[in-house]
């Protein structure tokens, strides 16, 4: 459990923030700036030299250069970020998504410098960032977990004992981090030693922690997550679920809400367990609890103690500004949303538009019409640099049913024109028109099953 005295006492003395630094870049920085503008909060954008003409810098009230293009020397430089906040008179830092958004050390540094971190406490991030500890915590609150070893697997002998009980296939996972790093599937005893070594090395290289654990591998489950908002004072809201099963190399491509795979009873059980967990943690801000779904069964996977890239689909179906609520929870210890009055209306779908090459945008035509949203940092004449995550935009649509939402997405993708770089727009259009995707009956192996056809569409 986190340090509870820090949670409630810390929030009680906070006042409305007047200036906030965004420790991120790209479309999420633009998204945060827009909500801050509506809240009357001034924003400070940080940028590397590669991003000096980026849209988030243009839209913010002030910009501060924090280093050269490599992330390690700019967006991941904690001291530069803290100094930028202090020197510009900011009272809070919003970490966005990725980079330092789930870094307990950064959250602690922010707090120790007298600033507000727009996210949960460092203690909560630390607890939930350790997947082994998070599994134990989930079990305490009645959430089922995938069968697995009780703790970390530190040797081949421990690994052999675990697989003897679990049977094959199993999956080795890093205890820290995500994004598929430190993750290896093992289908036989002869593969265990090599894959344990690789998983440990990947985990150590990417997360500075080589700890791994072993679970039974589910061949083709659905990936479902609940969007949570919590004020740290006992009020917890669940904004429905999202289905994120369309993934390439563990990276999400398409998200939708609600999930075609979740029954009313499953939704009720997931929600009850999630509310109990977040309330006990005195969690503050936006977070996501992730599950694997196989038939009528669901299994806790992890908690993402931050905002998610795919939050707009939940905003569409609930009519909620999640970032607004997140900021209010973290700065004032309250949310405007009534957890008992959250309702799900219609269906929302998000396609991630990824840049397959860097370059200058020579032409940009943004789709419009009812229920269409385009979150991006792109504008005509801007340059997409080669140094960062490939996601250049998110196209999100909403309509009354899944069928109508997919028809709207199909039309919106037709309208979207991005020239000067290569993108996956055509591939996304192919996927949403694929009969297997349209049926709603697919799992996390879906992309692997259609890979050759989908990649021919690029």
Question: Which labels suit this protein?
Answer:
16 helices; alpha+beta; 458 residues; D-amino Acid Aminotransferase, Chain A, domain 1; eight-stranded antiparallel beta sheet
Secondary-structure topology with pairs:
Elements: H1 4-12, E1 19-22, H2 26-39, E2 42-48, H3 55-59, E3 62-67, H4 78-87, E4 92-94, H5 104-112, E5 116-117, H6 122-129, H7 131-140, H8 156-166, E6 170-174, E7 184-186, H9 192-207, E8 212-216, E9 222-231, E10 236-248, E11 251-257, H10 264-281, E12 284-294, E13 297-304, H11 311-318, H12 322-332, E14 347-354, E15 359-360, E16 363-365, E17 372-376, E18 383-384, E19 391-399, H13 402-415, E20 417-419, H14 425-433, H15 435-439, H16 446-456
Parallel strand pairs: 1-2, 1-4, 2-3, 4-5
Antiparallel strand pairs: 6-7, 6-8, 9-10, 9-12, 10-11, 11-14, 12-13, 14-19, 15-18, 16-20, 17-19
């Amino acid at each position: 459990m986190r340090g509870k005295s820090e949670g409630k006492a810390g929030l009680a003395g906070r006042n409305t923030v007047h200036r906030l630094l965004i420790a991120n870049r790209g479309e999420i920085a633009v998204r945060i700036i827009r909500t801050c503008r509506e809240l009357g909060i001034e924003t400070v954008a940080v940028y590397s030299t590669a991003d000096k003409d980026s849209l988030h810098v243009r839209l913010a009230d002030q910009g501060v250069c924090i280093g050269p293009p490599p992330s390690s020397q700019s967006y991941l430089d904690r001291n530069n970020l803290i100094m930028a906040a202090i020197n510009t008179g900011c009272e809070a830092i919003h970490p966005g998504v990725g980079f330092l958004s789930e870094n307990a050390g950064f959250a602690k540094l922010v707090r120790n410098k007298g600033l507000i971190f727009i996210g949960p406490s460092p203690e909560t991030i630390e607890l939930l960032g350790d997947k082994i500890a998070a599994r134990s915590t989930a079990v305490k609150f009645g959430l089922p977990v995938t069968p697995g070893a009780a703790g970390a697997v530190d040797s081949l002998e421990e690994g052999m004992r675990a697989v003897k009980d679990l049977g094959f296939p199993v999956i080795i996972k890093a205890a820290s981090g995500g994004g598929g790093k430190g993750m290896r599937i093992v289908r036989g005893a002869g593969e265990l030693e090599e894959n344990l070594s690789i998983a440990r090395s990947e985990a150590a290289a990417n997360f500075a922690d080589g700890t791994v654990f072993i679970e039974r591998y589910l061949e083709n489950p659905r990936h479902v997550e609940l969007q949570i908002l919590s004020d740290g004072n006992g009020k917890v809201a669940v904004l429905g679920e999202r289905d994120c099963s369309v993934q390439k190399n563990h990276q999400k491509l398409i998200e939708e809400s609600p999930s075609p795979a979740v029954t009313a009873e499953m939704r009720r059980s997931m929600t009850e367990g999630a509310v109990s967990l977040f309330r006990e943690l005195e969690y503050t801000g936006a977070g996501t609890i992730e599950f694997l779904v196989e038939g009528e069964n669901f299994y806790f996977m992890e908690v993402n103690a931050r905002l998610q890239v795919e939050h707009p689909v939940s905003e569409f179906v609930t009519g909620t500004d999640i970032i607004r609520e997140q900021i209010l929870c973290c700065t004032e210890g309250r949310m405007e949303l009534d957890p008992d009055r959250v309702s799900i209306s219609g269906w929302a779908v998000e396609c991630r538009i990824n840049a397959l090459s860097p370059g200058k945008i020579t032409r940009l035509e943004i789709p419009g019409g009812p229920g269409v949203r385009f979150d991006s940092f792109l504008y005509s004449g801007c340059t997409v640099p080669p140094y960062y995550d490939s996601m250049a935009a998110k196209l999100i649509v909403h309509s009354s049913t899944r069928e109508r939402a997919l028809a709207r997405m199909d039309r919106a993708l037709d309208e979207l024109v991005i020239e000067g770089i290569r993108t996956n727009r055509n591939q996304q259009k192919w996927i949403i028109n694929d009969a297997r995707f349209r049926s709603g009956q697919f799992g996390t192996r879906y992309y692997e099953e259609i890979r050759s056809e989908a990649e021919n569409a690029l």
